[in-house]
């Protein structure tokens, strides 16, 4: 993995340079802070507040974790002469890096996601022109004849962090 060298003052204007002389803006390297804050708020009580420093610290940690796991998965793909990192590679990388407690629920999530994607593909084939809304978004017709939006109602966070998943379509 290439070493990065950071130059810059404020966190919004930092630029990273890698060993090959490439340049990456910090905003392109980090998970958006609004997303981090939103996820953090889901776990905390509704009256809890989160400091900017806490969000920035979590943003750095999450971004580094993603890079760490992805790098391990990418190394595996390179050894196997493949160019695409897939979900199984990420699960393998998490297990090989000692994150078995997270890899197992992620594997379950991936399996359920693939099942739902397969069902969705099958249902999409059966959609008629009357089942398209005005914006062109797909509407699915369930077995009972009711229409429903084709969006998935679950997240991997709900599987790995013990949050309430009672509204999830996974279980």
TrEMBL record:
Pfam families: CBFD_NFYB_HMF. Keywords: DNA-binding, Transcription, Transcription regulation. InterPro entries: CBFA_NFYB_domain, Histone-fold, Transc_fact_NFYB/HAP3. One of its GO terms (cellular component) is CCAAT-binding factor complex. Residues 31-94 form the Transcription factor CBF/NF-Y/archaeal histone domain. GO terms for molecular function: DNA-binding transcription activator activity, RNA polymerase II-specific; protein heterodimerization activity; RNA polymerase II cis-regulatory region sequence-specific DNA binding. It comes from the Eukaryota. Residues 1-21 are annotated as: Disordered. This is Transcription factor CBF/NF-Y/archaeal histone domain-containing protein. The lineage of its organism: Eukaryota, Viridiplantae, Streptophyta, Embryophyta, Tracheophyta.
């Amino acid at each position: 993995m290439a070493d990065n060298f950071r130059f810059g003052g404020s966190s919004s204007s930092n630029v990273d340079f890698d060993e090959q002389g490439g340049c990456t803006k910090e905003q392109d390297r980090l998970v958006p802070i609004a997303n981090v804050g939103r996820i953090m708020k889901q776990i905390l009580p509704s009256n809890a507040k989160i400091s900017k420093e806490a969000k920035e610290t979590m943003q750095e940690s999450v971004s580094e974790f993603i890079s760490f796991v992805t790098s391990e998965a990418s190394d595996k793909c390179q050894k196997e002469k493949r160019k695409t990192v897939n979900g199984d590679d990420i699960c393998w990388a998490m297990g090989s890096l000692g994150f078995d407690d997270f890899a197992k629920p992620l594997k379950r999530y991936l399996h359920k996601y693939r099942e739902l994607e397969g069902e969705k593909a099958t249902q999409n084939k059966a959609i008629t022109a009357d089942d398209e809304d005005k914006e062109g978004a797909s509407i699915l017709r369930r077995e009972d004849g009711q229409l429903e939006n084709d969006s998935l109602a679950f997240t991997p966070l709900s599987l790995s962090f013990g949050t309430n998943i009672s509204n999830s379509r996974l279980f």
